Amino acid sequence: MNYKRLFIPNSLIFITVVTKNRKQILIDNIEYLKTAFKLTKQKYSFDIIAIIINKDHFHTIIKPQDINSYPKIIGSIKSTFTKISGIDYSKNNSRESDIWQRRYWEHTIITEEDLYRHIDYIHYNSVKHYGIAPKDWKFSSFDKFVINGFYDKDWCNFDDKYNIESLNLE
Known about the structure:
The protein is an alpha+beta fold. Helices cover 37% and strands 16% of the residues. It has one domain (12-165): Transposase IS200-like (Alpha-Beta Plaits). It is built from 5 helices and 4 strands.
């Protein structure tokens, strides 16, 4: 199958990256994942607008300085995590480990409304997957958004929840 990706300059990109067979390894190895992001940011210039790390996948919105670099950014995060984590899953060929799904989901955000919906979706993920309020999930950018006045600390009441549940962004 031929995948077409959009490369619109100055765009924000919503990305979902999933572990292979949904292995629940990311939270247990969060420091390695943070290091993988940090090392990747040293190689490629990009901002992380919002992020959530779940046990078996993560969602993020990034703004790469060079829009053409976002596939390399994701590849670097995945390969760096694989190398430094020391997780020993057998390789299915010389290029891929069994830690990550080969593909990732991406969506180019081009409107402010679309941006806000994706930010909400990211921060709602702890409720969706674990029944944990965003303020109580340590592995997201939610606190940053509270500090900056984007959310109330108790955001995600039932009205918020029902509006967000209608989105399917995985």
